[in-house]
Design brief:
By secondary structure, the protein is of the alpha/beta class. Helix content is 45%, strand content 17%. It has 2 domains: 267 residues, Rossmann fold (3-Layer(aba) Sandwich); 86 residues. It is built from 13 helices and 11 strands. The strands form 2 sheets. Strands 3-2-1-4-5-7-6-8 form an 8-stranded mixed sheet, with helices on both faces. A 3-stranded antiparallel sheet has the order 9-11-10. It is globular. Bound molecules: S-adenosylmethionine.
């Protein structure tokens, strides 16, 4: 059997990666285009690759432009103030960028009315510096930025760069990391570049011994979260290529609504686990019964410590990587078992067991609409 080359064919695990990108952009663009506030959206794909692979697979530039085209034509008929969506595709290899340009033309995926389209063939570092210089002005101009960073290797990336890209408060970053290779190296003769990368977010790196790649990813996520602080949201999407190879996308945002949209995209792709796409398909797990338990356990601990407001529970649920509908299911159950009471500010019990007020609008406007008390 001929082994397909990951660099010239879009293989299944890469397809899962760009699928998440597409699913997220669909939701992100839909919200931002209709928020009545954002004037321009700028999408940067800093390691864009060649767009169209030999096997016909579509890489990130094509997936991105497809979503933009879709949102444009859905909205253009409905609204007169559609924000422009600019795209910038960069790859160090000129031939790849040319290919992207050509396939966007061949597939009619770009129309001038969408916004500006730019190509470059710079090293990531150059583009990173350019972008950093531009960011401070964008917020003042009511512009939003989405940055996709998809390198082959971790050596290009530093956690502090992600932090810098996020500092203006209007950017979201999706970062791909070859976590399996990083994990292997981290536990065995760590190269300097990896040591530098990890030490930034895991200060006690020398004593750090994650037991397997899943722990490694969970701790990197926590490390990023600690490093960025509580004003930011971090999530991961794991992609298992085969039994020995696990890659991971890391998502960073300072906006809780954007975070919820990423979680929705993730759950859409893997409705069973919500923890990532599995190459072998969703084989039943030995721990099948425990699937929804992690959230239930966490909710119990959270509510035992204190009575909680709906706004707190909305944020808590998302930070655990779950959606309000999951918490709602658990709460419905607990309310039927008379373990949970839900009261308005004047102490009245909310009778309808399906009403929990765990949505973004309540978080924003009525953070303390109801209080939850676990008996
Ligand atoms: C994983 S591939 C990108 C795949 C692409 N995002 C897709 O979905 O098809 C990584 C890309 O990074 C490019 N690259 C490697 N080193 C780079 C650098 N220093 N700066 C910018 N691009 C680089 C490679 O040419 C390659 O196309």
């Amino acid at each position: 059997m001929i082994k397909k080359d990951v660099k010239t064919n879009l293989l299944n695990h890469s397809e899962a990666k760009v699928r998440l990108l597409g699913e997220y952009l669909k939701r992100y663009l839909n919200i931002i285009c209709n928020d009545g506030y954002t004037k321009r959206i700028k999408i940067y794909d800093l390691f864009c690759g060649e767009g169209l692979y030999e096997n016909g697979g579509e890489g990130s530039p094509l997936v991105t432009m497809r979503q933009i085209k879709h949102i444009h034509f859905v909205n253009v008929a409905k609204t007169s103030i559609l924000p422009k969506i600019d795209c910038h595709f960069n790859d160090i290899e000129e031939s790849k960028v040319k290919k992207v340009e050509q396939s966007l033309k061949d597939k009619s995926l770009y129309y001038q009315e969408f916004g500006d389209l730019q190509f470059s063939t710079d090293d990531y570092q150059v583009q990173y510096e350019n972008l950093l210089a531009k960011l401070p002005n964008l917020k003042a101009l009511n512009q939003k930025v989405f940055i996709f960073i998809d390198p082959y290797e971790y050596k290009h990336i530093k956690a502090s760069q992600i932090k810098n890209l996020m500092l203006n408060g209007s950017s979201e970053v999706l970062l791909w990391l070859p976590t399996q290779f990083m994990y292997r190296f981290a536990s065995n003769g760590t190269p300097e570049a990896l040591k530098d990368f990890i030490t930034e977010i895991i200060p006690n790196f020398n004593e750090w011994r994650p037991g397997n790649v899943w722990h490694f990813i969970a701790e990197l996520k926590q490390g990023f979260q600690n490093f960025l602080g509580n004003n930011y949201f971090v999530d991961t999407f794991t992609i298992q290529k085969d039994i020995n190879t696990v890659f991971c996308l890391f998502f960073f945002t300072s906006h809780i609504k954007g975070f919820e949209k990423m979680l929705e995209a993730k759950w859409e792709i893997d409705t069973e686990y919500g923890k990532g796409w599995d190459y072998a398909g969703n084989t039943p797990s030995l721990f099948h019964e425990q699937k929804t338990n992690p959230l239930e356990i966490k909710l119990k601990e959270f509510l035992k410590a204190n009575n909680r407001f709906n706004g707190e529970l909305y944020e808590f649920t998302l930070r655990q990587g779950f959606l309000p509908k999951h918490t709602n299911e658990i709460f419905f159950n607990w309310r039927n078992e008379v373990k949970l009471s839900v009261k308005t500010a004047d102490g009245t019990e909310v009778k309808n067991k399906k009403h929990t007020y765990l949505g973004y609008k309540y978080f924003r406007d009525e953070f303390q609409k109801v209080t939850f008390n676990l008996k």
